[in-house]
Q: What sequence folds into this?
């Protein structure tokens, strides 16, 4: 398995490409950069996944669907946010290309497969109602649930601080310390590092 990271948009979103066996899954294409397009030139894109549908994480959906013909997948509870992408962009003073409708809804317990890699879909609401994470062997793509030294904001529509903390407690903190967390913004971290040093997780 190969994991590539592309930092895109003025919000410095991490777009991840997971490659295995000539296939790829793209996670959170906030924009489609030249480097991202080039990285996908030698693989078949099996799926495009939005961990959640804030505009900074899915602004590249339309271009990527057009270029790869891959199905777009989200959690069903994120659909209202996906449909409101242009209004979201206006809130932050940016222009956002509307996304196509999703081809597939992902829910807790589903599996996303790419080559020989399987990742479990984990529903982790709080930052947004239908936020999902993708958990593979020894790693989790966590979106905006948790960051190195911080957690996702909950002051946007659909956010719930208590729900977010419960998602982190129930879905992440029981994982082994060495589990690598790939967040939507900033550097990768580990469960152990966040358990010990993240000030927002004290007492969980």
A:
């Amino acid at each position: 398995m190969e994991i590539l990271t592309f930092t895109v948009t003025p919000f410095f979103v991490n777009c991840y490409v997971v490659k295995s066996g000539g296939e790829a899954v793209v996670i959170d294409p906030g924009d489609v950069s030249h480097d991202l397009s080039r990285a996908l030139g030698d693989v078949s894109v099996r799926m495009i996944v939005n961990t959640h549908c804030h505009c900074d994480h899915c602004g590249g959906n339309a271009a990527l669907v057009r270029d790869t013909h891959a199905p777009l997948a989200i959690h069903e509870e994120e659909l209202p946010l996906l449909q409101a992408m242009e209004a979201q962009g206006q809130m932050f003073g940016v222009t956002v290309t509307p996304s196509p409708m999703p081809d597939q809804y992902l829910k807790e317990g589903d599996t996303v497969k790419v080559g020989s890699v399987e990742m479990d879909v984990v529903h982790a609401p709080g930052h947004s109602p239908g936020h999902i994470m993708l958990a593979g062997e020894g790693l989790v793509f966590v979106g905006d649930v948790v960051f190195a030294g911080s957690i996702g904001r909950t002051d946007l529509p659909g956010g719930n601080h208590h729900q977010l903390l419960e998602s982190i407690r129930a879905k992440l903190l029981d994982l082994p310390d060495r589990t690598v967390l790939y967040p939507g913004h900033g550097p990768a971290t580990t469960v152990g590092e966040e358990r010990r040093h993240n000030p927002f997780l004290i007492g969980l």
